[in-house]
Amino acid sequence: MSVHSQGTRWSVEIYEVVDHDHQQRILEVFLEIGQPHVVALGTQSGRRSYVIVEVSSEAERTFARKTITAIDTHATRTYSSKGSPVSGPMLA
Q1: What domains appear along the chain, each with residue ranges and CATH number?
Q2: pTM given for the model
Q3: Measured between alpha carbons, how far is 46 from 26 in angstroms, rounded to an integer?
Q4: pLDDT digits over 17-50, tens only?
Q5: In this structure, what are the phi and psi dihedrals at residue 61, rounded to the nearest 5 degrees?
Q6: Do residues 60 and 67 make contact, with C-beta atoms less than 8 angstroms apart?
Q7: How far apart are the first and last CA of the chain?
């Protein structure tokens, strides 16, 4: 991961997507695009599929939302954090 300047505010958003196929396509697109400050991960709960994105700016949040909804027009945001003043992604 790259080093971010102080003051970068990472935030997390979770989107429920239609199905596993849409989830995988969304993750592939984020991987192909290669935005260094956008981290996209997938998870499932039962039959529900989710895409979790971490971003470091409002512009990247908008970019992520538009990317997800362009691939899955029925995707719904189920969570949005306020942001955290950390120096990088919050992956455990």
Answers
A1: 11-80 (3.30.70.120)
A2: 0.81
A3: 19
A4: 999 999 999 999 999 998 888 999 999 999 999 9
A5: -60, -45
A6: no
A7: 13
